[in-house]
Write a structure and sequence with these properties.
Length: 83
């Protein structure tokens, strides 16, 4: 995933969370589960056949790649704190 794609995906996710009014719960969830982001990304890949049917394989794969790196979780947290 390129840097531009990563930044776009993080921005879209932050906007969706913010527009639903879930900024505070999302920040709490991400802060408490940050050490498990890699495990979460692997769970997304495991459930990709099921979730891909509902959301699309590319979307699930993109989020799985995004959450493999804890630095991306930090980027998302910074964006959410700005919103």
């Amino acid at each position: 995933m390129s840097v531009d794609q990563r930044d776009l995906l993080i921005e879209r996710l932050a906007q969706k969370i913010s527009s639903c009014g879930l900024t505070a719960p999302a920040i709490l969830f991400l802060e408490t589960n940050k050490p498990f982001s890699f495990i979460g990304s692997q769970a997304l890949l495991f459930f990709q056949p099921l979730l891909g049917f509902l959301l699309g394989d590319e979307v699930i794969g993109g989020y799985a790649q995004l959450f493999e790196d804890q630095a991306n979780v930090e980027r998302l947290l910074h964006l959410l704190e700005r919103h």
